Amino acid sequence: MLIDRCVIEVRSGKGGDGAISFLHDKNTEWGGPDGGNGGKGGSVFLLAKANLNTLYNFRHSRVIMAMDGEKGHKQNMYGRSAPDVTVEVPVGTVVSIESTGEVLADLKKEGDIVMVAKGGRGGRGNVCFKSSRHRIPRVAENGHPGEKKRLVLELKMLADAGLIGFPSVGKSTFLNVVSRANVETADYPFTTLIPNLGVVHLKDGRSFVLADMPGLIKGAHEGKGLGIQFLRHIERCRVLIHMVSMSEERDPYQDYQTINDELKDYGADLEKRPQLVVATRMDEEGAEERKEKFDKQLGFKSLPLSSLTHLGVDPLLKKAMDLIEKTPEFPLKGIVTGGVKVYDAHLDKQAEDFEIVKLRPHVWHIQGEKVEKTYALINITTDEGIAKLVKYLDKIGVDDRLYDMGAQDGDSVTVGEFEFIYTR
Fold first, then answer.
1. What is the model's pTM?
2. Of the candidates 319, 318, 316, which has an alpha carbon nearest to the alpha carbon of residue 305?
3. With 0-12 CB in 10 A as exposed, 13-18 as middle and 19+ as buried, what is 131?
4. Are residues 32 and 87 in contact, defined by beta-carbon separation less than 8 angstroms?
């Protein structure tokens, strides 16, 4: 079964908390702090493997988790770092974030690897806070939290050329003739339910990978027929071989325009790919006359083909190979290449700011990515840790912001799970 799209959730491990400890030794009068750092949390990686050809193992929404790092120990011993988790995916997998559509990676070569969730750094133990002025620190850091993401995995097959056209125009039959694909063929629509690949070897020693795409129909980009689920596989093809049947069952030129419209509406510039227009079923009665009329409507001559008699097979393969060799790879939909990110200091400052929300009368909540991350690192189980958090909130201007918003003495203020009473 070909599964070419799935959604997974990845969770990296949290870093281990730093330890608060003091040396107790009968031979050492003033031992001082000896709390060690926490271990690093495990990260999650995706690795491309050529021996896989489907996302079948991810057919159900899976959760891939890495373990948390170990807490620090006394005697300045570090906690153990958690092992990373590496998951194998097929070559040709595109990884993106479900909520935004942002593409994280295009794993198009054997061995390509990407970190999709970074493990949290271990927190520092109290030995790291010792100084000449602060000789007995009773504070340590919590481990950095891990990351949690929902990712979309899409398999986009690696083919140099793709066969496109309406159902039953002879795509699968042609692939069987020029390769050893052995694709099922029949004279009813949608015989081909999944994309099929075949390696084509030319007489001059050259070769390329040819993909047989399931038949498209009007409205395919909206999901009609087999629809958009297989249009994504065309994105990697450098050359499109557009097959149009010369049987009297359909209007060849109308079919040609309909397929091109679907390619355009898909939105990945597929209509800009080089195309070889092929008139198939030239062995049928009246095909020559229909091809002549079709060529006049096109404004150029299509390539004649009969998979039954092998008419035009070799010239078509040679033209396709020549076109592939001089056509560069096209970027995939959603992937921008060669772009330069421009940083705006004002925008960056706004992104780092915090926000205070009034939940109800006399109850306030502090939120924001930076303030929440900093809170997560502070160990508030000790008086010194609480003092450190309060000092940080005062430093970033929380007290002044609460006053400007009308907070009164005795109001309750929360940040994360920590609650304190506001006084001016």
1. 0.69
2. 316
3. exposed
4. no
The tokens describing 20, both together, are: 């608060």
- Please list the residues that pair with 201 across neighbouring strands: 207
Pairing verdict, β 62-65 and 5-11:
parallel
**Would you tell me how many other CB atoms lie within 10 Å of the CB of residue 14?**
27
> Terminal CA-to-CA distance of the chain, rounded, Å?
66
153: helix, coil or strand? Answer: strand
Task: Quote the tokens at residue 25.
Answer: 């030794």
Q: Give how far Cα 344 sits from Cα of 161, 338, 349, 355, 369, Å.
A: 42, 19, 9, 20, 18
| Residues β-bridged to residue 87 | 46
Residue whose C-alpha is closest to residue 18's, from 82, 84, 83, 77: 77
User: What is the residue whose two structure tokens read 């990515």?
Assistant: 369
Kindly report, residue by residue over 210-250, the tens digit of the pLDDT.
888 776 655 544 444 444 555 667 777 889 999 999 988 78
CA distance 297 to 302: 11
Instruction: State how far the Cα of 123 lies from the Cα of 366, in Å rounded to an integer.
Output: 23
Delineate the domains of the chain, giving CATH numbers in brackets. Answer: 5-155 (2.70.210.12), 161-325 (3.40.50.300), 345-421 (3.30.300.350)
Q: Which long-range contacts (CB under 8 A, 24 or more apart) does 189-198 make?
A: 189/215, 190/214, 190/215, 190/225, 190/226, 191/167, 192/167, 193/226, 194/2, 194/230, 195/2, 195/157, 195/230, 195/233, 196/172, 197/157, 197/159
Q: Which amino acid, 239?
A: V
Question: How many residues would you count in the chain?
Answer: 424
Q: CA torsion angle for 244, 247, 250, 255 (degrees, to 10)?
A: 10
Specify whether the CB–CB gap between 71 and 79 falls below 8 A. Answer: yes
- Per-residue model confidence as pLDDT tens digits over 253-277: 998 998 888 888 877 778 888 999 9
What CA–CA distance (Å, rounded) separates 424 from 411? 10
Residue with tokens 């949690």: 148
